[in-house]
Amino acid sequence: MSVTKLAPHAPTGPWLEPGLLPGDFYACQELLSGEERAKVERVREFARTEIAPIVNDYWASAEFPFEIIDHFRELGPLTWADPRSPEKPPSNLLTGFTAMEIAHADASIATFFAVHSGLAMGSIRKLGSEEQRLRWLPPMSRFEQIGAFALTEPCGGSDVSGGMETTARRQGDTWILDGAKRWIGNATFADLVIVWARDVETGHVLGFVVEKDMPGFHATKIERKMALRIVQNADIVLDSCRVPEANRLQNASSFRDTAEVLRATRAGVAWESTGLMLAAYEIALAYAKEREQFGRPIARFQMMQDLLVRMLGNVTASLTLCCRLAQLQDAGVYRDEQSSLAKAMCTVRMRETVGWARELLAGNGIVLDYNIGRFVADAEAIYSYEGTREINTLIVGRAVTGLSAFAR
Description:
Elements: H1 34-51, H2 55-61, H3 67-75, H4 92-105, H5 107-127, H6 130-141, E1 147-150, H7 160-163, E2 167-171, E3 174-184, E4 192-199, E5 205-211, E6 217-221, E7 234-244, H8 255-290, E8 292-293, E9 296-297, H9 302-331, H10 336-361, H11 372-384, H12 389-401
Cofactor: FAD
Protein name: Acyl-CoA dehydrogenase
Domain Acyl-CoA dehydrogenase/oxidase N-terminal: 35-142
């Protein structure tokens, strides 16, 4: 029986080689400017050398590689942070490719980055006052302060907009927060947590920047996860947590404002899922060329080529969808339903693609050393967070029919 040529801890193939992206079949990267491509290549090299070699061990132990934060600092700012800067913010196309490249190496680190730079920084950037943006965004962009985003509750996920139980009660220049949040990524070590709570007086949903040392804030790691094991998700308890008015996001006054943040981050999840399936395709392609059965590489068998082409089709469809959505974002004309369609469809295609990669690798597909088993598990979490497929489908369905099918 032929034995795979792949080393057990260092799979070979183009997915780990610098400067190559064989899954970009329609050359979508050419949509970037030369300067943007150079930045993406820096991120790709960072992901290849700093993330990919360490993630399997950390995934197995369900621990976070805190040294990676230092490497992010060395890489330099990846998001716009200083409103006083004469430099233009990076394009959404560049931001999307950046997210895809990080997810190409690992979905957990991509989730850490997305929670910090997209959800936490995005909330402050979109909904904070000028003073608040100047106070928090520059150190966050330098990874000197890490952010988290607390919206989901133990009894409220898809219905949290109408059923939020966490409350905010004002006493002079202080707000008293009470309640609980669940599945909050980065929360066990974040310096700043964006907490969403319902004002007991007005019923409106407000956003607060809760600092980790504020009395009444408690975060406990969720154990025994089967996906995104590197991400330190937490249960948060807010027990008469006192937050100054200066930490209330000044431009957040309803859940519509929260949804403004989610519109952008759902687009980011589409990019992340594309990065994950892109890596799965490239690993499967390299494996098929090297793995021999019946005296020849399995890439010469028709059924294996069929799997590879199906995978490539999913990657290509998802990447082109993401690129067009980014162009709409950069033009300032994208809508909630467009982000929702991208999130829903790309995550469905991701689930299919990593499953086909697992099928192609057969037994090796469930061994962590070959990465695919990690992708299959992590895909399940990405499929559900930032709005389930069903919720995003209802958002798109309402847009195309003009009729809401949401339960009341």
